[in-house]
Amino acid sequence: MEIRFAGQRPADADVLGFIVTKSSWDGFVFPLESSDAAHATAKVARFEGAAGQSFLYFAQEGGKTIRIVLLAVAEGDAGDYQKAGGELIAKVQTSGAKSVVLHAENLSAKAAAETAYGATLRNWRIDKYRTKLSETSKPSVTSLTVVGAPAEFTTLWPSYAAIADGVALTKELVSEPANIIYPESFVERCQHLADLGVEITVLDDTEMAKLGMGALLGVAQGSRKPARMLVMKWDGTGGAQEKPVVFVGKGVTFDTGGISIKPAAGMEDMKWDMGGAGAVAGTMKALAGRKAKAYVVGVCGLVENMPDGNAQRPGDVVTSMNGQTIEVINTDAEGRLVLCDALHWAQETYNPDTIIDLATLTGAIIISLGKEHAGLFSNDDGLAAKLAAAGIATGDKLWRMPIGPAYDKLIDSPIADIKNVGPRDAGSITAAQFLGRFIKDGVKWAHLDIAGTVWADKDGPTWAKGATGYGVKLLDRFVADNYEG
Ligand code: BES
Ligand code: MN
Ligand code: ZN
Fold it and tell me: Are the CB atoms for 346 and 248 separated by under 8 Å?
């Protein structure tokens, strides 16, 4: 779907979208043959301009039958405009309509951009494997024309478009099945970031073995697919920012549980166990795409967790890159084994002040927080507050969880330095404590457990059911607000 900017409504418009507020509604004058008829129709539909209301009707305009969509927002609420844009597209995406217009004469440039952004995000879907989709259920919309917004729209829009491109990459990586996206092909799908100026390096399994990443490689050894570490570097400061902020993503391209195998029911969901890595890759695309004035490194630990004659066993002791020995009690607690080596390597290599990891780490976080918030664990109140604020601003919401010594001792091992699972209690917290043991003194660290937010079983404001793209908007905003001055 192409986003266009115009002064006048194009003659071929099939859909006209209008955004109103409670206070603007009564006196709102539609640029239609009969504005009164629009009000009368809305009245029958009980549309009163209350934020969140929306309604579609058919009308005759210029001798043609078109759709008119009314959407109500709270004045100035960015999230509401995004939702309205998403709703506009959701209502007409497969309707047969091609040319959608957003009448933006009454909107600020920012409000118009937020609306077009929401529409773009919501428009994404994956149809490549549906070979028998009927003509009437295929997406029909080809353009969204923003009409009459202040000219500043055209300077604002490219950054929004770049973030939407990043979210789209994340949704794509998360949606693809595990026979298509595995460590090597995940890397391939991200190579195009080089065209945006991202410096890409890849560690293969031999290099990781040399570095001593026994924890990450222990997970990978049950799979025919070799592990990879994908590193994406973006420096938009020309060297002015000395140390990068580092994002690390869990990229388990499929999680069977390994020898501690998962039950069959629902196991297909574990294709999206690379959602942390997907969010990191999408964020790097967004930042480079909008030429963010910040120095950021994204690291993805990519493995597949399979049961096999060569797979690691419960009880195995592996040695991580920082020398700590780990008793692998449960091979299904593999994400932390991947992340501990990735986190250690990233700290050794980039010496960051701040490191943030994202991972679909525990089912327990879904029990705690459901699908509304991801879990936020941090050793630094300031960092936690900044992330939480970025979450509220973007709708990628976070909720802080506790960590501390009483939880930490639950993962002491009788045979090694640490074990990879604690008791049933506080499962998300002990997972975070495990990661925390690999964070160097003085480094500000946050761990985001995104197991509940990566995938949705129903449509949301800016996604169709399936991959939500969670994390890209969050991290992009975190960078914008705290590093770009
Ligand atoms: N990838 C899973 C966590 C998960 C579960 C994500 C459900 C999304 C939905 C992770 O690797 C895992 O298996 N965790 C175990 C940990 C347990 C063995 C301590 C879990 O949550 O059951
Ligand atoms: Mn697992
Ligand atoms: Zn997992």
Answer: yes
